[in-house]
Amino acid sequence: MSLARPTRTVEKATARRAGKFGAAATRTAIPAVTGSLYAARTKIQPQAVRGTFRRIKWALLAVTLVVYYALPFIRWDRGPGEPSQAVLLDLDRGRFHFFSIALWPQDVTYVMGLLILAALILFLMNAVAGRVWCGYLCPQTVWTDLFLAVERLIEGDRRERLKLDAAPWSMEKIALRTMKHSIWLLIAWWTGGAWVLYFADAPTLVVQLATFQAPAPAYVAILTLTATTYLLAGHMREQVCTYMCPWPRIQAALTDEHAYNILYRDARGEPRVSVKQAAALRAVGKPAGDCVDCFACVTACPAGIDIRDGLQMDCIQCGLCVDACDTVMGRLGRPAGLIGYDTEANRRSRAAGRGPVSRIVRPRTILYATLVAGIGGFMLYQLGARSFMGLSVLHDRNPLYVTLSDGSIRNGYTVRLSNKRPGERHYALAVEGLAGARVEVVGGAPGDLPVPSDATQEFRVLVFAAADARPDPSVQLTFHLTDASTGETARAQDTFKAPAP
Amino acid sequence: MADTANPGTPPAAPETTGHEWDGIAEYNNPLPRWWLYTLYATIVWSFGYWVAYPAWPLVSGYTGGVLGYSQRQTVLDEVDAVRRDRNARGQTQLAGASVAEIRADPALLRLALATGKAAFGDNCAACHGTSATGRTGYPNLQDDDWLWGGSPEEIERTIRYGARSGNGEAHVGDMPAFGRDGVLKRDEAEAVASYVLSLSGKPGVAGASLEKGAETFAGTCAACHGETAKGNPEMGAPNLTDPIWLYGSSPEQVVATVMNGRKGVMPAWEGRLDPATIKSLAVYVHGLGGGH
Description:
The structure holds two protein chains of two kinds.
Chain A: H1 7-21, H2 23-28, E1 38-39, H3 52-70, E2 87-90, E3 95-98, E4 101-103, H4 108-129, H5 132-137, H6 139-155, H7 158-166, H8 171-196, H9 202-210, H10 216-236, H11 238-244, H12 247-254, E5 261-264, H13 266-269, H14 275-283, H15 296-300, H16 320-332, E6 339-342, H17 344-351, H18 363-385, E7 389-395, E8 402-403, E9 409-419, E10 425-432, E11 438-441, E12 449-451, E13 455-465, E14 474-483, E15 488-497
Antiparallel strand pairs in A: 2-3, 3-4, 5-6, 7-9, 8-9, 9-13, 10-12, 10-14, 11-13, 14-15
Chain B: E1 16-21, E2 24-27, E3 31-32, H1 33-52, E4 57-58, E5 61-62, H2 71-96, H3 99-104, H4 106-123, H5 125-128, H6 152-161, H7 186-199, H8 210-225, H9 251-260, H10 275-287
Antiparallel strand pairs in B: 1-2, 4-5
Helix pairs in contact in B: 2-10, 4-10, 6-10, 7-8, 7-9
């Protein structure tokens, strides 16, 4: 599991074995299977801590949960006939509303861009300060923290919980467990309940849900999310990060010696000795580390690891071990920061007796930041320059042209107009490229083509060339669409076909 | 990163899985047992799934599953239900409105155009062509030349009752076989054919007298086609001065028309198509672009 185990450990192990069995034995020796490939999970009961990182985590937990639960209830007036919910994934009508932005299915590229941005921002965060996302912002971490807080409130801190786990079943244990799981299920249900509110008008859906008149998929979604929240945050916890999430592996491949990570400053901490021993050792001029081996950092860890083993894949870098250690150091009157955000380069530099090195600005952070700014800027520009009207023209496949009784030539086109704004709009269609061309619209007038709110409308458009115009067999036509009320325009190209002279 | 490992306490010999390749051994990091049980559970689940749902491909077909579920059939049923519902509502509206009312209501007009387009492909395209451009003997419905009138109402009437269809309300009026019936001789027919071709600037039969043709036209043809040869939609007599010729504009074809006559038949669709479809067809054909 541990990234910290260096490859040379294998060499060492082999060397030890060689010493035991002789050189010949190592050549053919296949290490024995020393344990099962599967193990029961050891339940982790983290100790409560106080400190800077705990406060940051409480604040972020409050902010993220409030955003999650409150966002669907924010109203946003888009005019009559339009949904008035600020954030709404309208699957029925195929619209994603985010405040003043409305995305159509063809705007799915923005979602793709957001995902690319999200990945790059993860890379950037990792290159600067490790697993910031995992430790503070990931829903898995936030909800696990919340469930842990409930557990602590009902069953007590680590020591009481361990005792309760070991205790035989009693009325009190049953009562405590029932209460804990009920509250967990309530939070889980609430989580699923808030999720569905993003897909329909929230106040309406709340009433429907309460009166059992909501559509069946809403209930199914709530039940599913209740189950997954309860399982993931209540029972699986750190296993989700260790066994299910790909990011720890990617992070391990992307980090470097200049990235800040939560590290144990072993140069200061080693060798680990008790306070008394340290005093004795120092008195005779022998080295003694600041780490008193109190295991406060281990018991505080929600991932169940020992940070003193170094950077590890299981570590979500939540900083709680920092708080735990700082508390102990404070009590002992030693400086804080035995565990803290540090870089591998710094550690080496200090070990070599040189000053601290900090290279937050380095090629990879510049690259990630440039990519984030570039792609983000491009998307913003695209969003700003996005057209709210659309025009597409399709020439009749057959007949290419029609000769009329007065000798004039007619071409037919299927024209599709889109209106991405709320409220009906009236467009004017004009054609350029054919002198003296006349435009007709079946069932409408070219100067006034109504398109309903947030919709597309198809029209059949006829273009006539007078008998004496004698156009070339194929003439380039430009269709101009104008919205007089906003001044917006759109254009499309097609051809005008005529018989060969 | 590797150097971060606690230098004070060297790690114990790591457990390995017992596999070794070229001296590289794999650490044994035991997976939680529930993960293994989840795998077993999914295997058990799959057996139930095979029984309940379509699963295994066979030589021709597949195992259907006891639930008889088919995603494709579900979609088809849903689409069908929507279509039936929409048709039922649309048909009622179309049946209750006149052609003029349909054309005045944008929503109804759209429905009629879509209905008409589908009905045209099913019923009319066999003669008039899939894009309504017709062919020799079958009028082009895209242009603005109409034998029996090109207003929406006139088109509706032609579709409903037909022309020379045997229906009591059908359009009647023949182009007689002037040659076969002995009314005109060959040279008179050639002269009158050359004359009408000259009205739209087309070459006639070599050597035929246009004056003689004009004389014959006034005496024999003008009754139906009119003094100025502009035709008469009351009788289905075509305009002979425009560049559109139903039976061809070569001198031979026009002479053949004069000699043998023409009796093109448009069937009556009343009784075969419901009124809503007929109205939709009229709106659609008129909307092709040539309607008056």
